[in-house]
Amino acid sequence: METSPGPHQLELPGAIHLVEEDGELVLRLSGEVDSLVVDDWHATAPTGSSAAVAVDVSATTFLDCRGLRLLVRETEPTRRSGRVPELRHPSRAVRRVVEMTGAAALFATVA
Asked: Which residue spans adopt a coiled-coil conformation according to this UniProt entry (predicted)?
């Protein structure tokens, strides 16, 4: 299962995709994940899907507060089920945002 970005007229600086890996959903971010990218995700995201058990940010170069809020919200059902979602391969910039906001405790970081 993979979702693709919506039909924006302008090229977005980043992207968010929901992919299936080993039978579980992973949120995959790339580029600069800012308000425009998050708005696009909300406009095109599948409804009623299961929770993401991991967030792959290995290709993410920038993450603003709306992007971080998206990560926290999209993985909340996983935390409620007793699991800790993974934050996979964050760059220094992404790791800094996550740590500075106190959100690091919500994820198991995989370097």
From this structure: none
Domain coordinates in residue numbering, the chain: 30-110
What angle, 0 to 180 degrees and rounded to 10, lies between the N-to-C axes of helices 35-44 and 65-80? 40
- Mention every residue, 6+ apart, whose C-beta is less than 8 A from residue 40: 5, 6, 8, 12, 16
Share of the chain above pLDDT 70, in %: 90
- Return all residues near 61 (Cβ < 8 A) that are at least 6 apart: 14, 31, 32, 91, 93
Q: Which runs of E-coded beta strand occur in the chain?
A: 14-21, 24-33, 54-63, 86-88, 108-110
pLDDT of residue 48: 67
CATH superfamily of 30-110: STAS domain (3.30.750.24)
